[in-house]
């Protein structure tokens, strides 16, 4: 499923909303998640999962072509962990119990 | 927004602010988005949200695990796990937003 198919499903279920509004709603949700992480915050969606930011320490890397040592600065990367309910549903327990 | 954690409530509030739907309707739409993503994953589909990231389901083989406390061997059944790969746009925004100084 891609973004536009998700928008279509939501639009089909909500005939009183325009396609454009549904797009704005879906975009708002994903943008909020990204924006929260950009501010170093967590996003906790019970049953679905949690987005968080992980710190990667700086290290000495190596240019694989030349073998030259290069300093890689510390950085922060997005991380997602699936929630319990979703993990259980993926493994055939529809009730998630 | 609450201190350092965003929740469904914050997402519903953002939808309410953006399109002026009632808070109830906004909350229902947030739930619906998460529900459709979950359902697709449970069907085994990959969910690819451009400029956000890709959720995919992977099959893990059975293996023998070990209880780290007792050293006892326990079988781990084959299972499906969910992985998320963030888009470059998200990686860049998260890296830029958290850069020190």
Automatic annotation (TrEMBL), chain A:
CDD domains: IHF_B (cd13836). InterPro entries: Hist_DNA-bd, Histone-like_DNA-bd_CS, IHF-like_DNA-bd_dom_sf, IHF_beta. Keywords: DNA recombination, DNA-binding, Transcription, Transcription regulation, Translation regulation. Pfam families: Bac_DNA_binding (PF00216). The keyword Nucleotidyltransferase does not apply. GO terms for biological process: DNA recombination; regulation of DNA-templated transcription; regulation of translation. PROSITE patterns: HISTONE_LIKE. GO terms for cellular component: chromosome; cytosol. It comes from the Bacteria. The keyword DNA-binding applies. One of its GO terms (molecular function) is DNA binding. Heterodimer of an alpha and a beta chain. This protein is one of the two subunits of integration host factor, a specific DNA-binding protein that functions in genetic recombination as well as in transcriptional and translational control. Belongs to the bacterial histone-like protein family. This is Integration host factor subunit beta. It comes from Pseudoroseicyclus aestuarii.
UniProtKB/TrEMBL annotation, chain B:
SUPFAM superfamilies: IHF-like DNA-binding proteins (SSF47729). One of its GO terms (molecular function) is structural constituent of chromatin. InterPro entries: Hist_DNA-bd, Histone-like_DNA-bd_CS, IHF-like_DNA-bd_dom_sf, IHF_alpha. It comes from the Bacteria. Keywords: DNA recombination, DNA-binding, Transcription, Transcription regulation, Translation regulation. One of its GO terms (biological process) is regulation of DNA-templated transcription. GO terms for cellular component: cytosol. It holds the Pfam family Bac_DNA_binding. Belongs to the bacterial histone-like protein family. This protein is one of the two subunits of integration host factor, a specific DNA-binding protein that functions in genetic recombination as well as in transcriptional and translational control. Heterodimer of an alpha and a beta chain. This is Integration host factor subunit alpha. The gene is ihfA.
